[in-house]
Amino acid sequence: MSTSVLPSTRALQQVIQSRPTSDGDGVKISRIAGRHYNVALDPFLLIDEIRSDDSRDYVGGFPPHPHRGFETITYMLTGGFRHEDHLGNVGSVSAGGAQWMTAGRGIIHSEMPEADNGSLHGFQLWLNLPADQKLCNPGWRDVQAGEMARHQADSGAQVTLLAGKLGIAGADAVALLEGPIRTVTDAVIADIRLPAGSQLELLLEARASASVLVVAGGLPQLTAGQLGVFGPGERLQLAAQDEPAQLLLLSGRQLREPIAQYGPFVMNTMDEINTAMADYQNGQLV
Q1: What pTM did the predictor assign?
Q2: Which domain covers residue 194, as residue numbers?
């Protein structure tokens, strides 16, 4: 019986362009999501970027709404968000902080923006839950900027790790970072800043998914607003062009399970979606 040998270095396999849209109460966002990307992004379901200096683009926020079957992670670069939910949780995060919410069997929450002199810039990620965890107890927590794991590489690259474990190759040794957020899918989420012309080599689980969103600047074959999806391998090599680059790294254990989604509910079958909608309409979601 033959066994497949994974390449040592991950190769770029797909480029996905973010698209402008709106959500909540008219909030303007750039989004990467959709059934045709589920396999490439697994275990991530959605990547939203909110970025504006005009409060009219986001002031309506996201009034109370339900979720079931997945997790959300909101990470802010400028400004912040205030969270409230039916469990009585209330909290805010500002620049450099994150909010981690597990919808599980059901949660009703609101997310309202808190601008910094009119500016708001951040991300929300939807992270899938495995079938046997979709109806787990809901939960929420704030992770402030000071709790993040940080590392400066020999090249001057700066890595801020929100979630999971990440190895960073150096000239003489490998630095191991461990973020404050843990997920059942072993998700790795990192904010990476590369000086112009610099390089960085990351060590990831060889069979985990790996994608990189370019927030600013560029990489070979990738420009701002594009997500690069990389194939399997132990090493991910990143190189900035002739200007600094900012990146969002997303990696995780692929679930390879059926996905059924309708609006704020993500389950494995349409019967489960219908149950979620009925539970919400009947007041039994939470």
Answers
A1: 0.95
A2: 148-255
